[in-house]
Amino acid sequence: MALKDILVSVDGGKSARARLEYAAGLAAVHGASLSAIAVGHLPVVPGFVAAQLPREIVAMQEETLRGEVAAMEAMVRGASRPGVEIAFRPARGNVLDMTVAHARYFDVTVVGQDVDSDERAVTGTEGLPEAVVLESGRPVLILPAFGDLSSFGERVLVAWNGSREAARAVADAMPVLQRAQHVTVLSADPAGAARRMPGADIALSSASIAASWRTSLDLRIGPPGAADQGELSGDSAGRATRTDENPADEIP
User: Fold this and answer.
1) HEC profile for the chain?
2) Whole-model pTM?
3) Residue spans per domain, the chain
4) CB under 8 Å to 187, separation ≥6 — which residues?
5) Fewer CB atoms < 10 Å away: N or C end of the chain?
6) What CATH number has the domain spanning 5-143?
7) Tally of CB atoms within 10 A around 52
8) Distance CA 170, CA 209 (A)
9) For the segment 97-149, what is each residue's pLDDT rounded down to a tens digit?
């Protein structure tokens, strides 16, 4: 399973270049097309204030906006690599609304972590990860704002409870899971769920999948708060065995 169309959000923030380069690498691995959306953001002011702004101030704001979009376009062009052409999608308006609207047409959207309040205010990206996750209806990859992203996605943790939301999340993440070096599935079976047994279900399914992917798999299952229930772990061939050597409260 491979990604075909990837969207990455770019802005004037410090982590935008690293995010763009990661998305370009992801597109290269999957042989996917990559588009970069850059939304020109102007400060939101009340209508009665905007009506009284001198034309010179409005013209300065427009010139600044054009310069920011041009800088983002140059950054996008510079991130292109052999086999990966990045389509630049300039837009104007509310950053959250425009990004969500575009994200609905892509296999996955890459956005940055929401951490720097001052930067968010300038770029208009405050609340962007949450908005794309909750409103686009499409998979979203949120990259950390700090650190080396070259190995991001090699070790994956799947939180599983047997619910509809968990099943959808795992299905959406399949392209990433298939290429991960190691996947850990963590399931805390809720009390009174003997009939459904979500931990046992994911253990059987994941073990067979890992065998076909040749992915290292670790399955960890236990009731919430019960440190004496042990750990379910699987080897690289997908076989799973129950042990009681590591208590559940020591699971990282």
Assistant:
1) CCCCEEEEEECCCCCHHHHHHHHHHHHHHHCCEEEEEEEECCCCCCHHHHCCCCHHHHHHHHHHHHHHHHHHHHHHHHCCECCECEEEEEEECCHHHHHHHHHCCCCEEEEECCCCHHHHHHHCCCCHHHHHHHHCCCCEEEECCCCCCCCCCCEEEEECCCCHHHHHHHHHCHHHHHHCCEEEEEECCCCCCCCCCHHHHHHHHHHHHHHHHCCEEEEEECCCCCCCCCEEEECCCCCEEEECCCCHHHCC
2) 0.75
3) 5-143, 155-250
4) 159, 160, 161, 162, 198, 199, 202, 203, 219, 220, 221
5) C
6) 3.40.50.620
7) 9
8) 12
9) 999 999 999 999 999 988 766 566 567 788 899 999 999 999 999 998 888 88
Rg, the chain, Cα only: 22
For 177-236, write each residue's pLDDT tens digit. Answer: 888 888 888 876 655 555 555 556 666 666 666 666 656 777 676 655 443 344 433 333
Among residues 246, 240, 218, which one has the least CA distance to residue 155? 218
Q: How far apart are CA 215 and CA 238, in angstroms?
A: 8
Q: Are 187 and 160 in contact (CB under 8 A)?
A: yes
